[in-house]
Amino acid sequence: MAVQLITQDYTAVTADWLIVGVFGEEPFSAAVSDLDEALGGQLARMRESEDLTGKLAETVALYDAPNIAPHRVLMLGLGKSDELDLATLNKAVMTAARQVSTKETPTVAIGLPGTENSGFSPADQWEAAVTALIVGCVGQGIYQNEPQRFSFDNITVVIAPQDDEEAIGAALQRGEAIADAINITRDLVNQPAQDIYPESFAAEAEELAAEYGMTCEIFDEDRLRQEKMESLLGVARGSERAPRMVILEHRGAGDDSPTLYLCGKGVTFDSGGLSLKPSAGMLDMKMDMAGAATVLGAMTAIARLKLPLNVVAMMGLVENMVSGLSYKLGDVLTARNGTTIEVHNTDAEGRLVLADVLSYAADHNADYIIDLATLTGACMVALGQDVVGAFSNDQTWCDAVVTAARDRGELVWQLPTYDLYADLLKSEVADVKNIGGKWGGAITAAKFLEKFVGDCKWVHLDIAGPAFAEKSQPHQEGGATGVMVRTLVEVAGRLT
Ligand code: BES
Ligand code: MN
Ligand code: ZN
Fold this sequence. Notes:
Number of domains: 2
Helix content: 25-40%
CATH class of the largest domain: Alpha Beta
Strand content: 15-25%
Structural class: alpha/beta
CATH architecture of the largest domain: 3-Layer(aba) Sandwich
Strand order of the largest sheet: 7-8-10-9-13-17-14-15
CATH topology of the largest domain: Aminopeptidase
Bound molecules: ligand BES, manganese (II) ion, zinc ion
Oligomer: single chain
Number of helices: 16
């Protein structure tokens, strides 16, 4: 993908598609008025007839217009300028990207109005727009013989003469790095368990580490046993596919700088184990490694952008399956930190994997930890399918993560972590049991994880809903979304 910027009249831009953003309920910008003039007043007439209202994510296509250079123009509604934020901008540009990528479209250009009334800078606007274009032209039909979606070769950003070229140029590079990272995450999550299992995931991570200049260490079963990660190993026991833990390191700063740990749940398939899921609930469980894939994707962007901080990524990779060797209800697992766990439900496996990963991070001088996991259906009951749940033992750190998400247009909401929820995890046999019962399931899961993070500043992000879209919508392809990659890169950038 090549991304470049130009200062030019819309009428002179050569592209297969030119996407032009317009606000609703306000006059056309000077650039759009010039385009309108070249089109003989067509845009003004369409506005008059309410065919071009400019409401959010409205699209109006103009084909083969005479007197202008672009082959086709897609007018894109952005809603009211003072209501536009990066989340709604993303929605609009994703809608446009999805519309113009249904057949081969080598070159796409995009022009957007000024950001004076909106709560973000032109650089932020362009970063988000480029990210949305590159993410929006990639689909989940990775096994189709007839492709349904086509990536752009070339993106041209049409800026205004008064814009700061240098700042926008840098933003385009960030936007591209983040988009590629999101697509890496999505591709891993969209691949089924026959192709992505702990060993093959680890191999992908190793390749990406080499490509982006990160160190990579892979723990096999023996090493995991040496590390006493018997909680993770317990989950893995029922599968023919051996578990792995991958540790990637990006060293962008000196030894005395703080280290951020990103920990991901990587259950490459979650059958539920002996507490077997019903068939309908199992269908999408190839996505249960989205936490690990998000961490891996974000690391590629962090490394590519050479962010000046130290980041360690840990991915706990297992398959949760049924066999004669499966861990069983009533089994007691001894986690890496010595905590004994009575298994009451083998489908609450993600927390057992993360327990050992988090304890490893806590023992290796993590200053800040974020873990990501498709951990609970209960989080979707609480917040719906589109909002990430946040849980923390440190309010300042949690605020930093939630604010970064909001500033990048991703939806995160904090849930409480009162100690009364931890009482629900008491076991009569072991130190703790792995489920809390009927109520507050997203929170009891978080309280379980908290037992393994020591004194570290920690935020847990439950991405069970937003990581994977049930069906396609105009602004979003079904399947993996790459949610939280933007946020992780932003959080890392702000720690420097
Ligand atoms: N991977 C699931 C959570 C999940 C469910 C993610 C639906 C995405 C969509 C997790 O391992 C799980 O099975 N959780 C159980 C926990 C329960 C047994 C306490 C759940 O949410 O039902
Ligand atoms: Mn499960
Ligand atoms: Zn799971």
